[in-house]
Each structure stands twice: as structure tokens, then as C-alpha cells.
Design goal:
The complex is a heterotrimer of chains A (354), B (257) and C (309).
Chain A: H1 13-16, H2 23-43, H3 46-72, H4 80-97, H5 103-122, H6 131-150, E1 163-164, E2 169-170, E3 173-174, H7 178-201, H8 203-213, H9 215-220, H10 225-252, E4 254-255, H11 262-275, H12 280-304, H13 310-331, H14 335-349
Antiparallel strand pairs in A: 1-4, 2-3
Helix pairs in contact in A: 3-7, 3-10, 3-11, 3-12, 4-5, 4-6, 4-10, 5-10, 7-8, 8-10, 11-12, 12-13, 12-14
Chain B: H1 3-26, E1 28-35, H2 42-61, E2 69-76, H3 81-92, H4 104-111, H5 114-117, E3 121-124, E4 140-143, H6 147-162, E5 172-178, H7 181-184, H8 187-197, E6 200-206, H9 214-223, E7 227-231, H10 235-247, E8 254-256
Parallel strand pairs in B: 1-2, 3-4, 5-6, 5-7, 7-8
Helix pairs in contact in B: 3-4, 9-10
Chain C: H1 2-32, H2 39-61, H3 66-91, H4 101-123, E1 138-141, E2 150-153, H5 154-176, H6 178-188, H7 190-195, H8 200-226, H9 235-246, H10 251-276, H11 281-295
Antiparallel strand pairs in C: 1-2
Helix pairs in contact in C: 1-5, 1-6, 1-8, 1-9, 1-10, 2-3, 2-4, 2-8, 3-8, 5-6, 5-8, 9-10, 9-11, 10-11
The chains are: A mainly alpha (354), B alpha/beta (257), C mainly alpha (309).
């Protein structure tokens, strides 16, 4: 009833091709952004920012990057954590070794380093695919785990191998308080989400999807697989690298290579599957789900007053994730994002479905 | 009129005392417990977490600390830094009086946050070795020494066994360590000690979590060190002992933290 | 020289264990085209069941005999693996027929997560031991030739013998029995096999049970060597390069690949590792497999993949 597009006529190509063609969607998005930018900083508690919103935003960004590779281009990657680590450690080195390096520049340079490594490990994708490619990306994961632990230069010869950053600021504004950290992440994530959305709607995005759906057919109609696959790897690892910088600098502050272990790679892959392969909103939904579920399950016994051991809860979280992944793959391979759009479709017709 | 300020002061004092007294009257002090009962380090985490709970229960059963009962709550970190940070943020809001992160990695991540929140980080025999200097890390409280103390005690014990630290000259000591910030902490101290006393230090890293040690112990067998210092945690220790038996290294020459 | 031989033996023995896990991968891939990431979780689950049942049965039924406890635990663990195989087929695989390999791979990742959590909820996450009476002490041979002799772990020898036996039994099963022939037929062509009346679903249950059996044996051997704990499920990650190297569809490939990876890993760790700071074996195996992939994508003994990019 409320969600109707009657009377909204498109009179120009620009209007027809905009990201949200329906007026109500634009309103909803505007409202969401308003809540995120204005209301949240006013009402959110410190716990909410530090433990939920900031990790959610950063992981959503990383999942977005991974989704470009897995969801749009159909190349599986189990080495996302590695590319995050490359971004984080590269940015760290730029910050430490060059005096007065601004955070934003270091972040983008970190992303660029991740891009180079991503393309390098993406080269095997030209010759192999599917699970063989998964093994190639696993090689990236184990190699970077080792490199950042063992090669002292990367960690500025810190004896323990753990590094930390302090006194972050952007254009002279310190990024110290939870609210400022949150807003900084939010701005970065929004910009990247907009960029990713437009990329996937452009020629290159269509090439990725063509390669994903059938590579031979795509090659026949004149898409260069080399170019399409490597750009997907490049864009994906750039975004993932930037997310790694944020995770290390903004969220953790001090970190060791274990922060970007293979568990992180799996976690991100699960976000993409649960959220929805091949959709931008899916990355956000998946990240929200994966961040919130363990927290809620952890607190549930506390709220209900059921004495249940913390270990059991964490095993339960494992089981639920596992079961959900299988469930989504069987029932709805396009994940939460698809459920959302199905819901919207129903809303358009409600209450008179015929 | 002169009485007025005095009365005011008296009221303030009473109020102050009352507000100080309130927590004591509530008879409770809240201590969050970060623990890890899952993951690769659970074999160490489970007994540690159980022990701490039992101790707190015992203290409470004996009437608490000066009549103040201790309330506690457990939060599972799985030895992962991000989970630890989440636990910290969640539990500090409930009036935590101190934190014992039970993990070197989480301690590193919390060291910057604790001074802002004014919550002491208590690290029992682990954590940032450099935090011994209380002037620099004002809110880190290492109890029972750090890894440097532990390494030093081991070296001194070996010296005693040999009949004096100078007798360590020319000996070979191998450090089999967990390849993580935790395992690397004692290295600078041991290297200095090696220079001082003239023993040879062999560093043998074991990749986390430490189930793959065959190559390490083959190296131990080749080098035949006089002593092995085992710097392991969780599943690494049990594996190390089994591999040591399988390579026939005498157990009386092995020292663990 | 003596030390080189020791390293070589150590590598061969480790490789034998990788082969055992890799075998599970190959069996399932051959019969259902699923790359089973959950093999490691199955090893953990089976080993946990074995360790805990062997501990619990004597308490529940009040007997002392270690042999009886182990036997009963083995049967119970195997029964659990069969039930598991049935459940996986019933609730997961049969719904995902004709999906792409990558989807199936992700589904097995989900199964792996589920099993990790489920196994530890049932059996606990502490470290448990399996005692099947394996000898623990090392033996020294060729003492006349080298100073100190060449050390061989007796336990490894027993493990290698068991692995070899398992491979022979599996080979016989595949070649000589009727079920084995049906399995091979399904592996060659699903549709053709179905059209001559081979029940696909039952075959899948059987093949997952056989993989469960391989997982149980691997779990017992690893568990008795190193103890049973969550980290055991990580052996899947060690076995991945093995299957890539040996070829996904070849049982001998899994064995030879395991030996190559085992030896290559240990030799590289000991002779190249110190130059790079140590701890290189985990990625060395992967880089070895990756380099191999670029040259020969189907692995050492694998069938040629036609639909390459």
C-alpha cells in the first residue's frame, strides 16, 4: 500500500538508470543515512560503537570487496585475510617510515599494495578455476601469515612481531573517540559502496558477470577473460586491503598477524554467502548477521538467566553458522539480499496480489 | 554565619562518605573473566578459567574480601583478539573493576584503551614484558613477573644446575617457541643472556597453533642442545612432549614456562 | 648423512599420514564430484568419538579391559560416521545435485563448521588421548654406519603399516566387490550409472561412509600420536596440497603426493628454513602444489581436465 510506484514515470534515461529507481527506496536510503550519520552518533553508546558498529562497517567493506570477486566474477578466494593483512602492514610501513604521512594517503597506498599482491595471486586464475583456485589463494594466506611474522622489516623490527599505531587524524581532526572512529569508517564505507555499486553496473561489472555465468560464452562475445578476471582481483583486493587498514588501525589499534588468519578469510566468505552472492546490500546484511549473531547468542543466556557455559555457546555459534550456510546454499543461493528483494516484491503488490 | 561554610563542608563530607560507602554497602565488586574454552588453546584455557572461578567462589564462600562479595561473569574469547576486544567493551560497561585478558594478543590491543577507560589490566605472568616499567604503561599491572622474568629464572636455574652461571659458557640451549608475539617475548632477554654468559642460543620457531613439530625436533636431535626451553601454549605443549619422546630427547633437559 | 636419512624418514612418515587424509578427499571427489572440505572436521569428529567412547564405555558398563573399550569405541565411532554420512547425503547433497563444484565446496565448508561445533559440544574441547597401544619409543638402526645411528620412530612405522594396509583394503574393495564396481561406475558417469539401475543416493551414503572410515583411521593414528583436540581438523589444510599434487581422482596419486609433500616439507624446513627464519613448511607445501598446478593442472595422476579456461 505504502510501497507503490504508481505515478512515478521516468522521462529521461538518467532517471531510468539511477541506482534506486523507486521513490520510496530513495527515501528509505536517505532515512538510513540520516540515522547512520546523525542519529547514531547522538544516541549510540560506546559499547555499541566499538563492539558492534565499527567491526560491522569494516567487515562489511571487506565482504563487499570479496563479493566482487566471488559473487560478481565467480572466482573463489580463501585468502581474503591475507589481502587485508597486506593492506594493514603496508599502510603501517608507510606511516612509520614516512614522516607526516596522512592517514588517508597511507590507507589508499595500503590498498594499492594489496591490489598488487591480489593481482599476483590472481594470475593462476587464468589457468585454473574452482577449487584449484581456492588452493592458490590459500597459498597466499599461509605465505602472508608467515611473511609478516618472520620478516622483521614489515613490522619495523618489533621484537614481539606485534605492531601498533596511535594518534590517528584526518585533516587535523583526531580519530580517537568511538564516535569519530565510527564516522570515519562510515564515510569510507559509503564512498566505497557507491563506487562498487556503480562499477558493477558499468561495462566492467557486466563483463565480470558474463565471465561468472559462462566464461567460454563470454570469451566468444569478445570479453577478454584475462582483463576481466584480473580487474576483478584488483578491485576486490583494493577494497579488501582498505578494509584491512581500517580493521588494524581503527578497530584494533595494535595487532599481530593472527588478526588476519585463515579464520578471518572463512568468516568473510560466510558473510558473502549468507548475505547474498553478487549483491552490494548482501555484503552489509551478511556482515550485520555475522557480527550480531555471536554477540546476541553470547548475551542470550545472560538475559534469560539460563546457566549455559560460554564454551557451549561458542560451539553453538559454529553449528548455527554451518547449518545456515548449507541452508542458504540449498534454499536461497542469493542469500539475505534476495529474501529482502522478494519481500519488497511482495510489498509492491500488497494487499491486492492479483 | 560562620557556621554555614562548616555545615556545608560537613554535609559535603557526609555526602561524599555516603557515595563512597554505597559500593561497599552493595557488597559487590564486579570482575569480568575473559577466558577461552574453545579453539587451539583450550587445553590451557579450560583449567585456567575453571581455577579462577573456583578461587572466586572460594573467596565468596569465606565471606568475600572484607565482606565485599565478588560478582563475576565469563566471556569467551577463543584466544582471538577481536572477540577479546568485544568482551572488554561489553563487560566494562557493567562496572568492571579490572581486566585479566588471559592472552598476550588481547593485552596488546587493550593497552591503548585501558588508560582512557581507567581500568587496570592485570596480567598474571604474561603480557607485555615492557610493562614492568609502570611509568610508561600506567594501567598495566603485571603480577608474578613477565616472560622476561620467567626466562631469566630458567637461565639462572640452569646456571645453578651447572654450578654457576659462568659454567654455561659453550653450552647449547635451544628455544622451541610458539611463533607469535607470545613466543617471541623472551628472545631479547635470552639473547642478552647468551652474550653475557657465552652460551649458544638456537631459535626454533613452531608455526601456530603448533601441531606440526616433526622438523623442529629433528633439528633438536641434530644439534643435540644441552637444554631445551619450551615456550609453548595449548596444543603445542602436548605435541612437543610427544615429539620429544618420539625423538628420544631426555625429559630432564627440557624446561617449559 | 645420517641426519639426512632421519629427515627423509620423518618426511615419509608424515607424508603417509597426509595421504590418509587425502584419501578421504579423493574417495568422495571420485564418486560425487564434491570437493569435501569437511574431511578434516570428519577426522576430528571421528577421533573425538573414539577417544571419548573409549573413556566412557568402561565407566558406563563397568569393565576394565582396554582392548574391549577400544573395540567398542571403534564400532560406536564407525556407527556415528555412517549416520553422519547418511545425514549429509539426506539433508545436504541430495538437495544440491547438479550444482556447480564451487557451490558444493562452500556447502562442505558449512558442514565442516557444523561438525566442529557439534563434535565439541558432544565430546568437549579439551585435549583427549587415544591409547591403542602404539609403541612410543624410537628405534635406532644402522648404528654401525653412522654415529648415533639413524632414529626411526616405531610409532611412525606402525602408522605407515596401517596406512598401507588401508590403501590395499580400499583398492581391493574398489576392484573386487560389487559395491566397489558400482562406485567406480558412478565415478565415471553419474547418468549412465543411474540408467543401468545403480541407486545414486545409496552409493553416496556408502562412499561418504568409506571416507568416514578413512577419517576414523586417520583420526586414531594422529590422535594416538598427538592427542585429540580441535586443531586436528586443521589436517585438512595440510592434505589439500597433497590432493592437488597427486590429482583429485587418483588413489595412488594421493599416496605418492602425500609422500612428496611430506618429504619436501621436512627437507625444506630443515635445509632452506634456517635461511629464511624457519617455519616455512606450511606455505612451502602450498607453493609446491601451486607451481605444479601451473605446469600440470590435473596433478600427477589425475585425469586430464577438458574444460580448462
Amino acid at each position: 500500500m505504502l510501497y507503490r510506484e504508481n505515478g512515478q514515470f521516468k522521462t529521461s534515461y538518467a532517471a531510468d538508470q539511477q541506482i534506486f529507481p523507486i521513490l520510496q527506496d530513495r527515501w528509505a536510503l536517505g532515512l538510513l543515512l540520516l540515522v547512520a550519520f546523525v542519529v547514531m552518533p547522538l544516541v549510540g553508546s560506546e559499547y555499541f560503537f566499538r563492539a558492534i558498529l565499527i567491526p560491522f562497517l569494516i567487515l562489511a567493506l571487506a565482504a563487499l570487496g570479496l563479493n566482487i570477486l566471488v559473487g560478481y566474477c565467480g572466482q573463489i578466494s580463501l585468502g581474503t585475510g591475507a589481502f587485508m593483512a597486506v593492506g594493514a602492514y603496508a599502510a603501517y610501513n608507510f606511516m612509520v617510515r614516512i614522516d607526516g604521512m596522512p592517514l588517508i594517503v597511507a590507507m589508499l597506498l595500503g590498498g594499492l599494495c594489496a591490489t598488487v599482491i591480489g593481482v599476483l595471486f590472481g594470475i593462476p586464475s587464468l589457468r585454473i578455476k574452482g577449487l584449484y583456485l581456492a588452493v592458490a589463494t590459500l597459498a597466499a594466506q599461509f605465505f602472508t601469515d608467515w611473511a609478516f611474522l618472520r620478516i622483521g622489516w614489515f613490522t619495523n623490527n618489533s621484537t614481539s612481531g606485534s605492531v601498533s599505531v596511535a594518534n590517528l587524524n584526518v585533516f587535523g581532526i583526531p580519530i580517537e573517540s568511538p564516535v569519530s572512529k565510527y564516522l570515519f569508517c562510515l564515510v569510507v564505507v559509503c564512498l566505497f559502496a557507491l563506487m562498487a555499486k556503480n562499477l558493477t553496473r558499468s561495462a566492467i561489472g557486466r563483463q565480470w558477470m558474463a565471465i561468472r555465468d559462462m566464461d567460454v560464452a563470454a570469451a566468444v562475445i569478445g570479453i577478454r577473460p584475462v582483463y576481466a578476471k584480473l580487474t576483478a582481483f584488483a578491485v576486490s583486493s583494493f577494497i579488501v586491503g582498505v578494509a584491512g587498514v581500517l580493521w588494524a588501525f581503527v578497530y584494533l589499534g595494535a595487532w599481530e598477524p593472527a588478526a588476519f588468519s585463515i579464520d578471518r578469510s572463512f568468516q568473510l566468505l560466510f558473510m558473502v554467502i549468507i548475505g547474498g552472492l553478487g549483491s552490494i546490500s548482501g555484503a552489509f546484511l551478511g556482515a550485520a548477521f555475522m557480527v550480531l549473531l555471536p554477540v546476541v547468542l553470547d548475551q542470550l543466556p545472560h538475559w534469560l538467566g539460563i546457566p549455559i557455559s560460554t564454551a557451549t555457546v561458542s560451539h553453538l555459534v559454529h553449528m548455527i553458522f554451518g547449518a545456515l550456510i548449507v541452508f542458504f546454499l540449498i534454499v536461497e543461493p542469493h542469500g539475505l539480499a534476495k529474501l529482502w528483494s522478494v519481500g519488497k516484491q511482495k510489498m509492491r503488490l500488497w494487499p491486492f496480489p492479483h | 554565619m560562620k557556621f554555614k561554610p562548616l555545615a556545608l563542608a560537613a554535609t559535603l563530607v557526609t555526602l561524599g562518605a555516603a557515595s563512597f560507602a554505597t559500593p561497599a554497602m552493595a557488597q559487590e565488586q564486579y570482575i569480568p573473566l575473559l577466558s577461552y574454552r574453545t579453539g587451539a588453546y583450550a587445553p590451557n584455557g579450560i583449567p585456567w578459567a575453571n581455577g579462577k572461578q573456583d578461587y572466586l567462589k572460594y573467596v565468596n564462600a569465606n565471606g568475600g574480601v572484607n565482606g565485599v562479595k565478588i560478582a563475576y561473569e565469563e566471556c569467551e574469547t577463543g584466544y582471538a583478539t577481536d572477540k577479546g576486544v568485544e568482551c572488554y567493551e561489553r563487560l566494562k560497561g557493567r562496572g568492571a573493576s579490572s581486566f585479566d585478558p588471559q592472552s598476550t594478543g588481547i593485552t596488546f590491543a587493550l593497552t591503548d584503551k585501558a588508560p582512557i577507560d581507567k581500568i587496570p589490566l592485570i596480567t598474571l605472568g604474561y603480557g607485555l614484558a615492557a610493562s614492568q616499567d609502570g611509568g610508561v604503561f600506567k594501567w598495566n599491572f603485571p603480577l608474578m613477573g613477565s616472560y622476561w622474568t620467567a626466562a631469566d629464572i630458567l637461565i639462572q636455574h640452569l646456571g645453578e644446575k651447572e654450578g654457576g652461571l659462568d659454567k654455561l659458557k659453550g653450552k647449547k640451549i635451544a628455544l622451541v617457541y610458539h611463533d607469535s608475539p607470545f613466543g617471541k617475548e623472551p628472545i631479547p632477554l635470552l639473547q642478552k643472556r647468551a652474550e653475557m654468559h657465552g652460551f649458544q642460543l638456537n631459535l626454533l620457531p613452531v608455526t601456530a597453533p603448533g601441531v606440526e613439530q616433526k622438523a623442529t625436533w629433528l633439528q633438536v636431535r641434530r644439534d643435540r642442545p644441552d637444554y631445551v626451553l619450551l615456550w609453548g601454549w595449548g596444543v603445542m605443549n602436548s605435541t612437543a612432549l610427544k615429539e620429544a619422546v618420539a625423538t628420544g630427547f631426555p625429559r630432564e633437559k627440557m624446561y617449559g614456562v | 648423512m645420517g641426519f639426512f636419512l632421519e629427515t627423509l624418514f620423518g618426511g615419509l612418515m608424515a607424508g603417509m599420514l597426509y595421504s590418509l587424509v587425502a584419501l578421504g578427499f579423493v574417495l568422495i571427489y571420485k564418486a560425487s564430484g564434491v570437493f569435501n572440505f569437511a574431511q578434516g572436521a570428519m577426522v576430528l569428529f571421528a577421533a573425538l568419538a573414539m577417544a571419548r567412547f573409549a573413556e566412557w564405555f568402561p565407566k558406563w558398563f563397568g569393565f576394565e579391559s582396554l582392548l574391549l573399550a577400544n573395540l567398542l569405541a571403534f564400532v560406536a565411532a564407525m556407527a556415528m560416521m555412517v549416520v553422519l554420512a547418511w545425514a549429509i547425503e539426506r539433508f545436504c547433497l541430495s538437495k544440491l545435485v547438479n550444482q556447480e563444484g564451487i557451490t558444493l565446496l562452500m556447502a562442505t565448508l558449512g558442514i565442516a563448521y557444523f561438525l566442529d561445533g557439534f563434535g565439541q559440544t558432544l565430546f568437549g574441547s579439551d585435549i583427549y588421548s587415544i591409547n591403542v597401544g602404539m609403541p612410543k619409543d624410537p628405534a635406532f638402526v644402522m648404528e654401525s654406519m653412522f654415529e648415533g645411528g639413524v632414529m626411526i620412530s616405531k610409532e611412525d612405522l606402525v602408522a605407515a603399516a596401517v596406512s598401507a594396509l588401508l590403501v590395499i583394503v580400499l583398492a581391493l574393495f574398489f576392484q573386487k566387490t560389487k559395491t566397489g564396481r558400482a562406485l567406480r561406475a558412478v565415478a565415471d558417469d553419474h547418468q549412465a550409472a543411474q540408467s543401468i539401475g545403480i541407486p545414486l543416493n545409496r552409493i553416496w551414503v556408502i562412499v561418504w561412509s568409506v571416507a568416514g572410515f578413512a577419517a576414523l583411521i586417520a583420526g586414531i593414528i594422529w590422535g594416538s600420536k598427538l592427542g585429540v583436540q580441535f586443531t586436528l581438523s586443521l589436517v585438512a589444510l595440510k592434505a589439500l596440497p597433497v590432493v592437488i599434487l597427486g590429482g583429485l581422482t587418483s588413489v595412488p596419486g594421493a599416496i605418492i603426493g602425500g609422500l612428496i609433500i611430506g618429504v619436501g616439507e621436512k627437507l625444506s624446513e630443515i635445509y632452506i628454513g634456517p635461511m629464511l627464519g624457519g617455519g616455512i613448511e606450511i606455505w612451502f607445501a602450498y607453493v609446491l602444489a601451486l607451481g605444479f598446478l601451473l605446469l600440470r593442472p590435473q596433478g600427477l595422476f589425475g585425469e586430464k581436465i577438458i574444460d580448462r579456461v
